[in-house]
């Protein structure tokens, strides 16, 4: 919706107040690129000007209140030697990991976000979007939390095995990733990002028990957030796609400004658990509702979630995960309209 008060509204929610206006955030990159129709995703992810062009157009068309430049998970990994692949409209993903050894760790070189790999193009996109929109949308970069970053370097299976066979080496990889992601966050902040989306989906409750989460993933993430907060005023948006309340309450202790819930979470339970504890967002289902539902279902579910969550404050609207490229355009328009309607009640 590109309005001057978006940053104040977000900060009110972080302060556990009810914002003056309900925001429209959506993890919509796949959809936006497909809707725009000019570039395939693999072409776009290598060109900052094209990223900025697409999301400028999508923000104006659908009235999003943010520019969400998650793009893909591979920007930090490629300069380390991790093999990735993307094709046409399929996002880049890791296809060959590094060996889970001390030798690998000792040979890792810290990349420069301003120079190495595709990250300079992402920084260009952030600069262009901030120059275009100023403070009227929440310009948002992204990175992985240390545990998830480690699993993207070594592979999820090898990382989970390492937790059993050599937890000290796992901790050392996470230590490297704290510094790696700190540098990438700081570069995005300096390029103009108001916020950064910190993904830790490989540490959500479907992957790790609460005990394992606290042992292996919690402290590296906490320390990354602490380091970022010490040196910048960037808004930290944590996304584990969480659905279980005990794990969510642990995440609420990390120091993130906002926690985004996955589509499997019961938002009434979340509202009860998080009142007075922290700001949260979510969790419209991007598959069953946005992709497979009707405009009427989209409007109904959007209204239902907002009515449950917003009254007590500390809530921002968002989808629970990435919106697929096949979401019908009429469903995205229904979502935008439902948010506008929520601001009239």
Which helices and strands, and how do they pair?
Layout: H1 6-14, H2 29-36, H3 41-44, H4 48-62, E1 66-68, E2 83-87, E3 90-96, H5 102-107, H6 119-133, E4 138-144, H7 146-154, H8 156-165, H9 167-191, E5 195-199, H10 210-231, E6 235-242, H11 245-251, E7 258-261, H12 267-274, E8 279-284, H13 286-291, H14 295-309, E9 315-319, H15 329-342
Parallel strand pairs: 1-4, 4-5, 5-6, 6-7, 7-8, 8-9
Antiparallel strand pairs: 2-3
Question: What does this protein look like?
Answer:
The strands form two sheets. This protein has a seven-stranded parallel sheet, sandwiched between helices. The protein has a two-stranded antiparallel ribbon with strand order 2-3. The protein contains 15 helices and nine strands. Helix 2 packs across helix 4, helix 7 packs across helix 8 (156-165) and helix 9 packs parallel to helix 10. It is of the alpha/beta class. It has a single domain, classed as Alpha-Beta Barrel (TIM Barrel). The longest helix has 25 residues, at 167-191.
